[in-house]
Write a structure and sequence with these properties.
4-stranded antiparallel β-sheet; Immunoglobulin-like; mainly beta; 3 helices; single chain; 37% strand; 401 residues
């Protein structure tokens, strides 16, 4: 019976050694924080006048005389995103029975201005920091006589702008801007607006030398710049595995930490993601369906793929969304199965063959093992304990005999 107990104990040890220690698993995670920002339409209207060869801010003359020409330069400057501008000129006169100022008294207006209805429209896009002068001079009619004396006159100018992005006026019609509603600006004075720079290539790589996930650049929305209502934007992220082993890549998003204003922005922008032309997600930028891991596929050594994403900003958004900003975290995870050095079996002394690598889940237990390995270890430990207990009972029975 003692021999039987020793054999059972050896078998338990052999089973335990044969089922553990053969494979290890490597996992790495990479977070890319993408920034989304809405642009602004912001113009400034100031009046200048010529004094000699220089320009100074305009001041109203106390009196004018018939035939006199006044230097008056209304200048519209764009402080933000490229836009179209228009201006309406109205005149103030404290007498109804005598002539006042009229458009014919204005001089020095560029050919880029055309009048449609009650507005003058500038027919070129005004880029950021560019200016357009509405006119240069006002001439008092020489025919005005005594009946115009002590008359109080005024010229009132109202300037308006609309984004150039996703909007094309029709200058052949009487209403080039159509029925667009012009709202009061809600921007900060001289509100900053970033512009798109040179296009950057986007990539996520499971790097062989560093043996970790690497991204370039740190913001995958960098080519978007500052978005405007109606913008449609597409870009591609190159995903590759430059290691010598196959690996599975996973992807999910996170918008935690955003306030209600930022979440409102993210909930309005549409997002679509494709991996090698296969749709992975279609919804809003806050991505409620992307909070869980989604596999991008198992990548063989040297294999790469393309992750395409599309953003659509609502065209109906108005000035209440100007200059809003929000962040979205895109999280990439890699799982790689790493075979360890093969072990000798206690029974034959031969090397066990390597098991083929399989697809692994990104979920880990608190001690670093994945759930399948954890269950296997507990099972083997339990079997070893039961066999040992059986040996102990048999051994005691031998003493009684």
């Amino acid at each position: 019976m003692k021999k039987l107990a020793k054999f059972a104990a050896a078998a338990a040890a052999m089973v335990f050694m044969g089922l553990t220690g053969a494979y290890g698993y490597f996992s790495d995670s990479l977070t890319v924080t993408n920034h989304i920002a809405l642009g602004d339409v912001n113009i400034r209207l100031k009046e200048y006048q010529k004094k000699g060869s220089t320009e100074v801010l305009y001041t109203n003359p106390k009196t004018v005389i018939p035939g006199e020409t006044i230097s008056k330069i209304p200048r519209i400057t764009n402080l933000a995103k490229p836009c179209w501008v228009r201006a309406r000129i109205t005149y103030k006169n404290d007498r109804d029975h005598v002539d006042g100022f009229q458009d014919e008294m204005l001089a020095g207006m560029s050919e880029d201005w055309v009048k449609r209805g009650e507005y003058y429209y500038f027919t070129r896009i005004l880029k950021r920091k560019e200016s357009a002068d509405l006119f240069q001079k006002v001439t008092v009619p020489a025919r005005w006589g005594k009946e115009h004396s002590d008359q109080k006159l005024g010229i009132i100018i109202q300037a308006e702008a609309i984004q150039a992005a996703n909007f094309v006026p029709d200058f052949s019609g009487m209403s080039p801007w159509g029925n667009q509603k012009i709202q009061l600006c809600v921007h900060e004075e001289d509100g900053a607006a970033s512009c798109r720079g040179e296009k950057m290539d986007l990539s996520v790589e499971f790097n062989g030398k560093a043996h970790k996930l690497v991204s370039v650049p740190g913001d995958f929305f960098v080519n978007l710049g500052t978005a405007m209502p109606g913008d449609h934007f597409e870009d591609v992220v190159d995903v590759s595995n430059t290691t010598e082993k196959e690996a599975e890549l996973f992807f999910h998003t996170d918008v935690k930490g955003q306030d209600s204003s930022q979440l409102e922005l993210l909930k309005g922008i549409r997002l679509a993601i494709f991996m090698n032309d296969k749709k992975l997600y279609k919804g809003t930028l806050d991505s409620p369906g992307m909070e869980k891991e989604h596999s991008l596929g198992i990548f063989q050594p040297g294999q790469n793929g393309k992750m395409k994403f599309i953003l659509d900003v609502p065209a109906e958004w108005d000035n209440s969304y100007a200059l809003r900003k929000a962040d979205v975290q895109w999280i990439f995870t890699v799982n790689e199965e790493e075979p360890e050095a093969p072990e000798r079996t206690p029974q034959t002394g031969e090397y066990e063959p390597e098991r083929p690598a399989g697809r692994r889940s990104p979920v880990k237990t608190s001690d670093g093992l994945d759930p399948e390995t954890t269950v296997l270890v507990f099972f083997c430990s339990g079997m070893s304990a039961l066999i040992g207990l059986a040996c102990l009972i048999l051994r005691k029975g031998g003493r009684k005999e």
